[in-house]
Amino acid sequence: MTLHAPVGIGSFRLESDLNDSAAETRARLRARIDAVMDRIESADPHVHALLPEPGRRERVAAELDALFVDFPDPADRPPLFGVPVGVKDIFRVDGWETRAGSQLPPTLFAGDESVAVGRLKSAGAIVVGKTVTTEFAYFQPGPTRNPWNTAHTPGGSSSGSAAAVSAGFCPIALGTQTIGSIGRPASFCGVVGFKPSYGRVPTAGVIPFSTSADHVGVLAADVESATTAASLLCDDWAAAGGPRGSGARADGEAGRVAVVVDDAYSAQADDQIRAAVDAAVSLLSRAGWRVERVALFDDIATINEAHNRMVARDFADVHSSWVHAYETLYSARSLELIATGGTVTDAELDRARRGRHDVRDRVDEALARHNAAFIVSPSAPGAAPAGIDATGSPLLNLPWTYSGVPTVTLPAALSPAALPLGIQLAGRFGDDEALIAIAAQVEQALGFRPPR
């Protein structure tokens, strides 16, 4: 069953309606929100992207009405006015329980609303629902299925967020990435995934996995939607080419260089996705980009080990008190990670954390050496695997998460089985604005239009 039908943020904009009466404008947006509710009611019984919520339609309608009361003047309406968004169920949201995909008592996770959720709500967004996450944002999957083919995994751990965007329930959904939890589900579900630089979006109000590697980001229907969300979520956002970033270089001849990773890291991808990367690179060349192939992560096994040991120790520290009281409520996968984390010494953790900066410097040096604007790599080892008992491998996302550099995942092609194949763009640490501006150019060059 194919349920892929993403809808971008532009579908909810009302600029062209400014001359209509207030009642006409409200009716128009209400009709669009009603269509989203219809879509959820018809498709989510098959996709299982959202946590169940009795009275969802009535709540969303009431919140939309309240927005029109709060912002009667169209000129004063914030950028996400009336836009439905999904929120991964490790983010605290006022009025909602947070369960983190687990069986533990939700009272353990109670607290102030997450900063990221607050920023989207302040911009006028309506939370359409909590999205399913794997247990504690690790590998034990929930019930979510891939909208492209419900016999396949959507990836994880931001499973529900990717599936919700892919199925057309919302143009934006909050996710997190500690290993590969934005890039991989974005790739599997054929949507855009934006993982900002480590620390650009506050993690306050998010149930932690690893304080050394947790990133708050978004799954989005297109780069325009991702850019709007990024501009609201990231601290100190500046337009590309502004004082914070170097995005202006991407528009000049000197910056129109893309680096393609060709080494032991990229060899982890299968033939289908490597062919998709090659095809995308050819399109970029035709669009005027010069392409340089480099070996960047021939020591990928060492990087993977350092990252995995680091996050395991952090995870064990987070759960040290809970697991003693509620061990029988944990999955075997989570208990195994806690046990592994217990073997990581303080000295090993310190080395792994320092290693993040070494890999980050390596990425920046490769970009500088080739005067390049971004790096291209596969976003997953292949298309979404069959079955929903696992979420696929995060190996292609891991060095970018470890180094903390920003990434954007874009749908690029379809596999012979009509499943999405994605590419991953990476940029300089802290230069998120430039990377996402480049992603818009790459999205246009790829011209990927999935069948509807």
Mean pLDDT: 95
Unreliable segments of 5+ consecutive residues? 245-254
Mind telling me which CATH architecture this is? Alpha-Beta Complex
Q: Choose one word for the global shape.
A: globular
Element order: H for helix, E for strand: HHEHEHEHEEHEHEHHHHEHEEH
Number of domains: 1
State the end-to-end CA separation: 12 Å
Structural class: alpha/beta
Q: What is the CATH first-level class name?
A: Alpha Beta
Radius of gyration: 21 Å
Helix content: 25-40%
Largest sheet, described in full?
10 strands, mixed
Sheet-strand content, in percent, reads: 5-15%
CATH topology type: Amidase signature (AS) enzymes
Q: For the largest beta sheet, what order do the strands appear in spatially?
A: 2-1-3-5-4-9-10-8-6-7
Describe the structure.
The chain has about 450 residues and is of the alpha/beta class. The chain has a single domain (about 10-300, about 350-445), classed as Amidase signature (AS) domain (Amidase signature (AS) enzymes, Alpha-Beta Complex), CATH 3.90.1300. Helices cover about 40% and strands about 15% of the residues. The protein has 13 helices and 10 strands. It has helices at about 20-45, 55-70, 115-120, 160-165, 185-190, 225-235, 270-285, 300-320, 320-325, 330-340, 345-370, 400-405, 430-445; strands at about 85-90, 125-130, 170-175, 190-195, 215-220, 255-260, 290-295, 375-380, 405-415, 420-425. It has a 10-stranded mixed beta sheet, sandwiched between helices. Strand 9 (about 405-415) and strand 10 (about 420-425) form a beta hairpin. Helix 1 (about 20-45) runs antiparallel to helix 2, helix 6 packs antiparallel against helix 13 and helix 8 (about 300-320) packs across helix 10 (about 330-340). Mean pLDDT is about 95; it is low at about 245-255.
